[in-house]
Design brief:
Layout: E1 3-6, E2 9-16, E3 21-25, H1 36-42, E4 47-51, H2 68-81, E5 87-92, H3 94-105, E6 109-115, H4 138-144, H5 157-170, H6 174-185, E7 199-204, H7 212-221, E8 225-230, H8 236-239, H9 241-258
Parallel strand pairs: 3-4, 3-5, 5-6, 6-7, 7-8
Antiparallel strand pairs: 1-2, 2-4
Length: 261
């Protein structure tokens, strides 16, 4: 499986499909499982690229705290190693911040899709801490999901248990989680008027980690931002996966057509 070294940190990534590249950037602590639904929707007509942020899964976990600029540099190393010239960036939570920083600093982004994202770490509530759980503690993983979803997953034990299994296999350990959370809380967006790529901002109406108002403001401040509310909480991309996937694929098709893709 492909890896790339960025300043001594080995980063793991995977690609599937062919066509314009869509790179997914995950939330605090979350493994690539988080993108399972959207990955399946885009892989084929697009090349879907997923990677483990430093601190997560199969990538190295150097001591933290981390910052978004470093994570954006990691993303650039992955894209360069994968031979990607132009990319559609899709980020959730922390990953949306990384996508914003990357689009501002580098010249690869064709479009942005930002899910549950704020332009400033001060918008992130204390409920982020409720997502923190040791991957070896299945009870803690199950309890932490109350911050991620609007629905009570205890009423859907089969779904809850599948997510817990994925998290136990792929998510960051506590030190990696803390290092990434520091990056999310410490984020200050670059001047948003300089991020001129088309940007779709999707936000769960019941997000308790990053309030929906922060997403609305982000879309308003981006020169080519478009806001769409969806049902669900912070991980609406899982909770209402069909709605998010449909919106994402429609958006990508519009951007690819507009760019001759």
């Amino acid at each position: 499986m492909p890896t790339v070294d960025n300043g001594g940190c080995e980063l793991y990534y995977e690609t599937e499909g062919s066509g314009p590249t869509v790179a997914f950037v995950g939330d605090v602590g979350a493994g690539a499982w988080l993108w399972g639904w959207q990955h399946g929707a885009v892989a084929g007509p697009y090349e879907a690229l997923t990677w483990d942020l430093r601190g997560t899964g199969r990538s190295d976990a150097p001591d933290g705290p981390y910052d978004v600029r470093t994570l954006a540099g990691d993303l650039e190393a992955v894209l360069a190693d994968a031979g990607v010239a132009d990319v559609h960036l899709v980020g959730a939570g922390l990953g949306g911040m990384v996508a914003l920083a990357h689009a501002h600093r580098y010249n690869r982004a064709e479009s942005l899709a930002l899910i549950g994202t704020a332009a400033d770490g001060s918008e992130v509530t204390d409920r982020l801490d409720d997502l923190r759980a040791d991957p070896e503690d299945r009870g803690a993983l199950a309890g932490s999901l109350s911050a991620a979803f609007a629905a009570d997953l205890d009423e859907h034990p089969d779904v809850r248990d599948r997510i817990v299994s994925w998290r136990s296999e792929d998510d960051a350990g506590l030190e990696g989680w803390d290092a990434q959370a520091a990056a999310m809380r410490g984020f200050e967006a670059p001047p948003l008027y300089e991020v001129t790529d088309p940007a779709l901002v999707l936000h769960g109406v019941d997000d308790v980690v990053v309030p929906a108002e922060a997403g609305e403001q982000l879309a308003e401040d981006l020169p080519r931002g478009e806001y769409r509310a969806v049902e669900g909480g912070h991980w609406c991309l899982v909770e209402t996966s069909d709605a998010v996937s449909d919106a994402l694929v429609g958006w990508l098709d519009e951007q690819s057509d507009g760019n001759g893709g």
